[in-house]
Amino acid sequence: MVIKGKIHMFGDNVNTDDIIPAVYLDTTNPVELAKHCMVGIDSTFPDKVASGEIMVANKNFGCGSSREHAPIAIKACGIACVIASSFARIFYRNAINIGLPIIVCPEAVEETKDEDVLEVDTTCGRIKNITTGKIYATAPFPEFMQRLISAGGLMEYVREKQDMAADVN
């Protein structure tokens, strides 16, 4: 999968309350969650993010509670990929489970500036900063994770498998 878009930079220790403040957790509707994504840090974020853009953050992104609302809000507001120096373990798994590609690449984070344009190839593990021309290597997603993300997340992947099984029978 190749993702190309302008980036939005964030710092260290962005927690799930920053991503989607607890006051907005009375819904699981992705459209509603998207309206409040990142308002814990930047109240204007939902208005300035466009579909297909990329979020970049420093270390420990997604720390805090294990709420699945956080990656859902990020994906629903249009972010196509998150790159960080490191992720909280539960956030990482929740993101993959909902079909949001997330990539660990400290070098890219360190050398990228807000509003640079990146091209991310999750299949071969390559990040190219279109703005600077710099290329970064990262671990490609294993084939199973690629299929899971392409399907739109774990639940969609399971539905596809069930539909295929039903067609065979």
Automatic annotation (TrEMBL):
<keyword id="KW-0100">Branched-chain amino acid biosynthesis</keyword>
<dbReference type="GO" id="GO:0009098">
    <property type="term" value="P:L-leucine biosynthetic process"/>
</dbReference>
<dbReference type="InterPro" id="IPR000573">
    <property type="entry name" value="AconitaseA/IPMdHydase_ssu_swvl"/>
</dbReference>
<keyword id="KW-0432">Leucine biosynthesis</keyword>
<dbReference type="Pfam" id="PF00694">
    <property type="entry name" value="Aconitase_C"/>
</dbReference>
<dbReference type="InterPro" id="IPR050075">
    <property type="entry name" value="LeuD"/>
</dbReference>
<dbReference type="InterPro" id="IPR033940">
    <property type="entry name" value="IPMI_Swivel"/>
</dbReference>
<comment type="pathway">
    <text>Amino-acid biosynthesis; L-leucine biosynthesis; L-leucine from 3-methyl-2-oxobutanoate: step 2/4.</text>
</comment>
<keyword id="KW-0456">Lyase</keyword>
<feature type="domain" description="Aconitase A/isopropylmalate dehydratase small subunit swivel">
    <location>
        <begin position="44"/>
        <end position="100"/>
    </location>
</feature>
<comment type="similarity">
    <text>Belongs to the LeuD family. LeuD type 2 subfamily.</text>
</comment>
<dbReference type="InterPro" id="IPR015928">
    <property type="entry name" value="Aconitase/3IPM_dehydase_swvl"/>
</dbReference>
<protein>
    <recommendedName>
        <fullName>3-isopropylmalate dehydratase small subunit</fullName>
        <ecNumber>4.2.1.33</ecNumber>
    </recommendedName>
</protein>
<dbReference type="InterPro" id="IPR011827">
    <property type="entry name" value="LeuD_type2/HacB/DmdB"/>
</dbReference>
<keyword id="KW-0028">Amino-acid biosynthesis</keyword>
<comment type="subunit">
    <text>Heterodimer of LeuC and LeuD.</text>
</comment>
<comment type="function">
    <text>Catalyzes the isomerization between 2-isopropylmalate and 3-isopropylmalate, via the formation of 2-isopropylmaleate.</text>
</comment>
<dbReference type="GO" id="GO:0003861">
    <property type="term" value="F:3-isopropylmalate dehydratase activity"/>
</dbReference>
